[in-house]
Design brief:
Helix 1 packs across helix 2. The chain is built from 6 helices and 7 strands. The radius of gyration is 16 Å and the shape is globular. About 30% of the residues lie in helices and about 25% in strands. Strands 1-7-6-2-5-4-3 form a 7-stranded mixed sheet. With about 190 residues, the protein is an alpha/beta fold. The C terminus is likely disordered.
Length: about 190
């Protein structure tokens, strides 16, 4: 039986809207949720994860886990821990399994950058988010860090909600929350 897929997309005109959308998304996530982030270097995956952390009310200090592969950010309230994973250097599902994400999945929100094609086996429900931006032709000083200028470029946000966790009712609530966050921002074009 195939899992239903529902989609939502919009343009994020600047950093403020990206952060607002991430925070709104974070408020909708709960323990057991899996989020897979895709996009080129500098597309805003870590920035989106930082904003998710604000929405989840987890400990500050979310940075790219590139060199440690996974970081835990405990809740500051009564919510789930955020597990932030960078799967860029992992080759496949077998490499991911060495991180033992299954042991924390049920009580955490797990966000995996570069996880597409590597972590889908962890859950029958997930959010797949892609951030696309026009790549600046100028050389990037440090491709592992996003500059303020790069972060403030418009980007296309596409979310695919897959599986029973994201049934019609939950997806409609998520989509309404994201639209409200975008429309509440004073800058940028509003999206329906």
């Amino acid at each position: 039986m195939s899992n239903p897929v529902q989609e939502f997309s919009c343009q994020l005109d600047d950093l403020t809207i990206t952060e607002a959308l991430g925070e709104a998304l974070g408020t909708q996530l709960k323990a057991g949720d899996l989020v897979i982030l895709s996009g080129a270097l500098g597309a805003g995956k870590t920035t989106l994860t930082q904003s998710l952390g604000v929405g989840l009310n987890v400990r500050e200090g979310i940075i790219s886990p590139t060199f440690v592969l996974a970081r835990q950010h405990p809740s500051l309230a009564d919510g789930p821990t955020l597990i932030h994973v960078d799967a860029y250097r992992l080759k496949d599902q077998n490499d991911v399994d060495t991180l033992d994400l299954e042991s924390t999945l049920a009580e955490s929100v797990t966000v995996v950058e570069w996880g597409l094609g590597k972590v889908e086996h962890l859950s029958d429900s997930r959010l797949e988010i892609t951030l696309d931006r026009e790549v600046n032709t100028a050389a990037v000083e440090n491709p592992w860090e996003e500059s303020e200028e790069e972060l403030d470029e418009p980007r296309e946000f596409t979310l695919k909600a897959i599986g029973p966790r994201w049934d019609s009712e939950n997806f409609a609530q998520l989509k309404d929350n994201l639209r409200s966050a975008i429309n509440a921002q004073p800058t940028g074009e509003k999206h329906a």
